[in-house]
Amino acid sequence: MIIDSIRDRLLTLPPDTVVRTGHGGTTTIGDEAPHFEEWVSRGHQPVTSCKIAGKKCHFCVEC
Predict the structure, then answer these.
(1) What is the domain extent for residue 51?
(2) Which superkingdom does the taxonomy of this entry point to (predicted)?
């Protein structure tokens, strides 16, 4: 499940890991992690793909 993958793989990265969501500005794991459970409980589903440099990608993370 995508929610489990975000929780188990992305949110375990260092807090200063930069994330390019593809649907908003750049953020970091540290900025987003505290809001994750609230976000899920409100019924939000993550965007599962984005484009960087015109190429489709999934969960674009820059460490």
Answers:
(1) 2-62
(2) Bacteria
